[in-house]
Write a structure and sequence with these properties.
This protein has an 8-stranded parallel barrel with strand order 5-6-9-12-13-14-15-16, surrounded by 5 helices. Strands 1-4 form a two-stranded antiparallel sheet. Strands 2-3 form a two-stranded antiparallel ribbon. With 447 residues, it is an alpha/beta fold. The protein starts with 9 loop residues before the first strand and ends in a 12-residue tail after the last helix. It has 15 helices and 18 strands.
Length: 447
């Protein structure tokens, strides 16, 4: 949690409870050397690659879009391949080449989004990885990053991609080693080399054993080594290109779990010289997978981003899902703004995903950016949502998991979302809140 005692807002207020429980707020803001940050830059990620002739670059720039992330792969077993000229893999179409010919780089940057292991269409046992499940090994369609020949193919295709006119490359989240992956002969040999132990699969995969922890560390080390080679080789052909990598929400939030499940160790990844860390901060996915309430989801999201920023600093790019993964419906912009408010002010880049070519999507993103900029112009962040508002002692330490509008936190400071930048004039509270505060009647929320 941010230190509220230093370089932040201090508020004193007079709370007057009149009939109907209207809460009138009178605030005195005392500043302690606050330097307001400029609003972050924004990126949009498309899942389609059919952008040729369909982008209005002036409009994208006007609404605040700095970068377009363009998909250059299709990881389908039958129809899969790549969408750019290369010598290593099947080419479906030269979509990226065509887009580059027309692209207005002066107005919007272009990032190519590329896979690194999951070449599903390729049947090449020599280069493919092995899984270990239920006491048996089986081959997978993913490339084996312990195999030096497979790694050379990956590096070569990335070099060819980097040699094109691009601002950056985003490495897809298939660049990971799942808990049951890496059990090729190459992987097991590397385990023996680094640990001096025999590669006993049943012990390597058994959770929280010395064998398992050593194996997790071997995988995380290898993943970082290959990433370092990708970064180095891409920059050898294009010194200006930036390399980013998708990481899972567990990577900063649950480091040991992330290393075991994905082979991702954030410290190792940052040591490679990668330019950007794309944190897949997908709040609805987190809520569903971790079985959290809305209040718990927000608090977990806040902790995750703060931990990621603490390590990554200016390299961090926070990815926000704007669609529900299950229904594909667009998430209400107010919900998106609630989560943007939880992101530390130092984060300089935000990415919205997935965006479609529907004009309503662009207007939707534009509204979110305008709202964020309005808050920034009024003082960097919404002080009553981001920085916190200190209530009198009567209100302190009131905690209810379902209390969303004025959520208590452990230091006795409420995070409050008010109508400061909208037409609302009063603090919104919910019924359970009244029951915990002496002197307040249990009624519907006041406005």
């Amino acid at each position: 949690m941010p230190n509220l005692k230093k370089n932040t807002f201090h508020t004193s207020g007079i709370l007057n409870f009149s009939s109907g429980l209207r809460v009138s707020l009178f605030f005195l803001l005392v500043f302690q050397g606050i330097s307001w940050a400029q609003p972050p830059s924004y990126e949009i990620q498309f899942h389609t690659n059919k952008l040729h002739g369909k982008l209005d670059y002036s409009y994208l720039k006007d609404i605040g879009i700095d970068t377009v992330i363009y998909r250059v792969f299709l990881d389908d077993e039958k129809e899969g391949g790549l969408y750019f000229s290369n010598t290593q893999f099947k080419i479906i179409d030269l979509s990226l080449d065509k887009l580059i010919e027309e692209y207005d780089f002066k107005k919007v940057k272009l990032c190519a989004w590329m896979i690194a292991r999951k070449f599903n269409w390729l049947d090449a046992p020599r280069f493919q990885d092995w899984q270990y499940e239920n006491g048996k090994r089986r081959i997978t369609r993913k490339f084996d990053i312990f195999n030096p020949d497979a790694v050379q193919i990956i590096i070569q295709v990335y070099k060819e991609l980097a040699s094109m006119k691009l601002d950056s490359i985003l490495i897809q989240d298939d660049f990971s080693l799942r808990f049951n992956e890496g059990f090729s002969n190459w992987g097991k040999a590397q385990f023996s080399k680094q640990t001096g132990e025999l590669p006993r699969e049943e012990l390597m995969i058994q959770k929280n054993t010395p064998y398992n922890r050593s194996w997790n560390r071997v995988k995380a080390t290898q993943l970082a080594r290959v990433l370092d080679s990708i970064v180095t080789n891409c920059k050898s052909v294009n010194t200006a290109v930036k390399i980013g990598m998708n990481i899972y929400y567990e990577t900063p939030l649950f480091p040991d779990r992330a290393e075991a499940w994905y082979g991702q160790n954030l410290d190792y990844i940052l040591e490679t010289g990668v330019d950007y860390i794309y944190l897949m901060a997908y709040h609805r996915q987190m809520k569903d997978e971790l079985k959290l309430s809305e209040a718990e989801t927000r608090d977990t999201f806040r902790q995750m981003v703060e931990k990621a920023y603490e390590k990554c600093k200016e390299k961090l790019i926070v990815k926000i899902q704007i669609r529900d993964w299950k229904t594909s419906e667009r998430i209400p912009s107010t919900e998106i703004q609630d989560y943007l408010d939880l992101i530390p002010a130092g984060v300089r880049r935000i990415c919205f995903t997935p965006v479609t070519l529907d004009s309503d999507d662009f207007d939707y993103v534009a509204r979110i950016i305008r709202s964020a900029r309005k808050i920034a112009a009024s003082g960097g962040q919404n002080p009553f949502c981001k920085k916190g508002f200190a209530f009198p002692k009567t209100f302190n330490n009131v905690y209810n998991k379902e209390f969303l509008k004025a959520q208590a936190v452990t230091d006795g400071v409420f995070r409050v979302r008010t109508g400061l930048y909208s037409n609302q004039k009063f603090l919104e509270v919910q019924e359970p809140f009244y029951k915990k505060v002496p002197g307040l009647r249990s009624q519907a929320r006041s406005r």
